[in-house]
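Recap from last week: sequence in, structure out.
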Amino acid sequence: MRHEVIRLPETGVELEIYLTDNRAVEPERRRPLALIFPGGAYAWRSDREAEPVALHLLSLGIQAAVVRYSVAPARYPKALEEAAESVAYARAHAEEWLCDPHRIAVMGFSAGGHAAAHIGLKWHQMPQGKNCRPDAMILSYPVITSGEYAHRESIENLLGDQYMNLKEEASLEKFVREDTPPVFLWHTREDGCVPVENSLLLAEALCRKGVDFELHIWQHGEHGLSLSSDQVYPAGAESIRPECREWIEMAARWLREI
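Predicted structure tokens:
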């Protein structure tokens, strides 16, 4: 396995890459790649949604890179610019990383889901153009809206003193277009932090524009489940939900089939 941290030249964002090297036995094989955006309300980045997820993806045949995107006191559009460079850089290095340049996904959790969805929805506004368009989005209990069901802390941390002026720009369900990449979404009905309506609003907007998506909502489970297993929580913890832990295998299968 290749594991290293790379600082990108334009924005300075760090990518921590986890790559399987199959050249000795399958020299022609190119795997999908997931760029992982951990959650943390744009105030910090959750470790349980970073390396454990990357290593699990490797076990499923998917290359991975954790994006150490900027959080407060950095403000919009810094994280969006970093996401754009991350996708474009990964695509430019697809051959070196033994990944498929046509199966590069962004995978985000909570506020990291907002960062991932942001580039998936606004790639056309960025200077890298199609080079920074992800081929898919995998969003886990994502922050999406700045409206009635907003996780206001995340939006405030993202926008700072420009909250009132820019909050409509952060309500991502309003920016779905016909060329939006396909989306895999999952949430829990009981999420008391980021309401499930965030995923429902995005799914509704995707449906209206004819964009392919898959949506899973489980009844039970608190916010921030990550893998929902003893890899990220102590044995017996409430956040270990056998039904919810299935999401990552489901998402990996969905990504391979795109």
